[in-house]
What we know:
Layout: E1 3-6, H1 27-45, E2 50-53, H2 66-81, E3 86-90, E4 117-120, E5 124-126, E6 131-134, H3 140-156, E7 165-169, H4 186-190, E8 196-200, E9 206-208, E10 212-214, E11 231-236, E12 239-244, E13 250-252, H5 259-266, E14 270-278, H6 280-292, E15 297-304, H7 323-334, H8 339-353
Parallel strand pairs: 1-2, 2-3, 3-4, 6-7, 7-8, 8-10, 13-14, 14-15
Antiparallel strand pairs: 1-11, 5-6, 9-10, 11-12
Helix pairs in contact: 1-2, 7-8
Amino acid sequence: MxxxxxxxxxxxxxxxxxxxxxxxxxxxxxxxxxxIRLAAExxxxxxxxTLYITGDLFHVRGSVAPSVLNPTIDLFxxxxxxxxxxxxxxxxxxxxxxxxxxALSNACxxxxxxxxxxxxxxxxxxxxxxxxxxxxxxxxxxxxxHIGECLAELVHQSEAVNAWTLMLxxxxxxxxxxxxxxGFQAAELAAYGFKQVFCGHYHNHKxxxxxxxxxGATTHQTWNDVGTRAGYLIVTDSGxxxxxxxxxxxxxxxxxxxxxxxxxYCRGNYVRLRxxxxxxxxxxxxxxxxxxxxxLGTFVQAIPLARSAVxxxxxxxxxAPTLRESISQWIRDHSTEGEALEALCHDILTxxxxxxx
Length: 357
């Protein structure tokens, strides 16, 4: 039994570091579509017939631009007609206009008329690969209820649960360092007794004991993805293989890197250098340095300082906290709402980062 898995694709006309190519397509959208294509080709080479997408195919909730939808239709038509793959697309929270998954509010349903595309807006069992798929529900207790109903159906069909795999779109704790815990514990998911569990939602590939996996995003999408593992999975009877994304990554520059290491990490990627106070000349110097090292896009984050103020500089040119880190610290210092407010603010900031100006 062999198949591929992508997750958290977030097809979108991303604005940061993008350009419009000769075909009128957003360059970062093209990077993501190419990664899906690579995952499909790897699935075929491994002998698989199905590519699973465990949620968040699209990015903007409740709205998919034609310039995003049309190339997506073209790609999936190619994958199904020319490569003969079946593509099963699970509803994630970003695909939905509603809080909970249903066909009417799921943007992925726009692809269901393509032969070979199966859109999962409600829990479903697939006997060919022995896969249970549970889409996004806002409350974890609702997810638990649907998993329980699927388990009951397997028992009713005299199926061995430990021969089946669970795929869902839901938060799993300890996938992202520093993110408040408000999701499933991996041990709880393992305790259901499935052969394997694959979760979409958080943008980092990670393995947990009990064969529970956070699939991770298909590509890096924002500065929040720095340090995370993005790519796709190939699942066979012999195990799960992670294939890292070939698309540009978001990187934080480390001033301790030597020239060779800096060139290796900067080349073809989006690179951020965080400073304290810096003059415009210093900022320009560092930006030119990153470009010379091959960075595809650069962001020098600094507190502007006039040239005349250099002798009285209050801080050295050094690392400064990100906006996301500053928000988290403010909430910890001033709010009693805690983790729930921090998670909400991070979601809002992620939405803001995706706005195309």
